[in-house]
Amino acid sequence: MGGVLIGFAVIGFVIFVGWLLARLNVVNQEGRLVLNKTSFFAASPALLFIVLSEADVGLLFSSVLAVALIGFIAVAVIYIVVARIWFTRDPSRIALGATASGYSNVNNIGLPVAIYVIGDPGFIGPMLLLQLLVLAPLLLTTLDVLTAGRASFMGIITQPLRNPMLIAAALGALVSALGIQLPDPVLAPLEILGGAAVPLMLLAFGISLGGERPLQPGSGRKEVALAVVLKSLAMPVIAYLLARFAFGLDEQLVYACTVMAALPSAQNMYQYALRYDRATAVTRDIVLLTTIASLPVMLVVAWLLKPA
């Protein structure tokens, strides 16, 4: 578990730096918008392109991926129904909350978890491809359409085609599918930009914590609580039941599916919320609280299910 603790410590340190910058008034709350826009329009697209251009798209078709996808759909549907009936009628807010309830932090925490808890980094690939090629484009397209206002029909349906994240994901997947080997002069600047994506997101997240304390009255605490319960508790249970009984996977795969399902919600959710100015406090608190809850949950899963 040492590697997992290191992974959490690295993320926590960068978030702390962002919080400290805000508390010392080095960067104000407007500064987080600059960081987020830089990440959304430049750094994150570069990172997406590099990751997907080097990935094996064939990994999208596996039992492990099926467990992750069905688990995501289950918690997202539960969130949508409960939130729509009791909490809010804002479709953008519901879309972000539902996605945050199942979208895992595969990039930052998932890798050390896969290496040190499961013992096989190969489990990162299917989940990463699922989220980057399916779930993120679906959410971004939904937010593009919902926030298009009174744009024309053609403007609405072509809005996703002007989204840099979606364009980068599509191009990266195309490069991978065609087996194109990109030369170093092309990859080098993209790697520099892509390397800034995660730090920029984490710094913006930390700055937001310096401006307003989590779980403030009127910030959507019930929505946050619902998402945290679904992500931290319901999703690992659903993943376990699916892997064990629906797909009949062996002990190692059941363990892997359950551990990966216990990952916290990804910082990408806050980035998207900030970009579209929807449910920023809700998504920020979901990311923060699921990150705190995920470590003890994964320790319990390892204790109960880890094969001898």
Automatic annotation (TrEMBL):
Coiled-coil stretches noted in the UniProt entry, renumbered to this chain: none
Keyword Nucleotide-binding (UniProt): no
Entry membrane topology: Multi-pass membrane protein
Pfam assignment, any one: Mem_trans
InterPro entries xrefs: Mem_transp_PIN-like, Na+/solute_symporter_sf
Similarity field: Belongs to the auxin efflux carrier (TC 2.A.69) family.
Protein name: AEC family transporter
